[in-house]
Amino acid sequence: MRKISALLIAGVAVVAGWPGAGPASAAPGFGEYVALGDSWAADATVTTPSTEFVPLGCAQSARDYAKQVAAALAIPNFRDATCGGATVHDLTRPQEVTGGVNAPQFDRLTPSTDLVTLEIGGNDTGLAPAVQDCLTLNPAVSPCQAKWVPGGVDRISAQITAYEPTIVAAVRDIRERSPHARILLVDYLEGIGISGGCFPRIPISDTDAVWVGRKLIELDAMLARAAAESGARFVDTYRGSAGHDACQPPGTRWVEGLIPFSTDPAGLVVPFHPDQLGADHQARAVLAALGR
């Protein structure tokens, strides 16, 4: 995400078609896998960071879902370009982070790349900084509504809709660089439900919590449409994540809240990002989309 401490969580239960996909038993092996995306793809962490593929400032987890997928499929050539704070622009330009520069993520793609995962869009649409604006000490106040829905016009909804062609173009750019790749567009699992919040554990009013939950659903719906239009496979991580949002107790939640400590694994975490249980769920969803 643009700010690692920002929230980017979302949901919709839609699966777009995958042209040419055969039955699960016929799923072939892969020789070269490239993972692309933002902090939710990197499963941003300060407890188990990895600098194998990116600078430390990307906060990429040593057990993010892409690494789990690569290991489960025994892929011999794997590159993980995911980085906290990434936007679509960082797919094609260097991204400065603490401790170095993450090269343009598309630089990891080659003509022989045959599997790509992409999870991105929350920073681009403005949802991550919008969630930070929701924080309040007064549960009767809804600052997100005041700032982002002036006069009843929802600016985040408009930005989500406007960014759909950019996501479509990004998938098509991947296909130009790696014409034989199976491309999976991954959505964001549920972090805040649409039934309300859990003030004061997460200092957001119920009204704003419901609004955030619905914006997350809109974001994932946009990603599903972009996948269908571009011919990518949509990976639905939201399905199955209900009841595992940041308001749930340790061991149940798959996304951490504002308090920067988790039991999964034990240690400091990046607020409003998947914990290890969330990363494990993402990995299962990707593997299921591949018929594994």
Attribute tags:
292 residues, alpha/beta, Rossmann fold, 5-stranded parallel sheet, two-stranded antiparallel sheet, 29% helix, disordered N terminus
Mean pLDDT: 88
Structural class: alpha/beta
Low-confidence stretches: 1-26
Question: Measured on Cα atoms, how large is the radius of gyration?
Answer: 18 Å
Tell me, what's the shape?
globular
Number of separate helices: 8
> Could you give me the name of the CATH homologous superfamily?
SGNH hydrolase
Beta fraction: 5-15%
Q: What's the β-strand tally?
A: 9
Task: Give a description of the structure.
This protein is α/β, with parallel strands linked by helices. It has a single domain, classed as Rossmann fold (3-Layer(aba) Sandwich), CATH 3.40.50. The protein has eight helices and nine strands. The chain has helices at 39-42, 65-72, 127-132, 143-148, 155-162, 164-177, 206-230, 276-289, and strands at 32-37, 77-80, 95-97, 100-102, 115-119, 182-186, 233-235, 261-263, 266-268. The strands form three sheets. A five-stranded parallel β-sheet has the order 2-1-5-6-7, with helices on both faces. It has a two-stranded antiparallel ribbon with strand order 3-4. A two-stranded antiparallel ribbon has the order 8-9. Helix 5 runs parallel beside helix 7 (206-230). The chain is globular. The two termini are 29 Å apart. It comes from Nocardia jiangxiensis. One of its GO terms (molecular function) is hydrolase activity. Its EC number is 3.1.-.-. This is SGNH/GDSL hydrolase family protein. Residues 1-26 form the signal peptide.
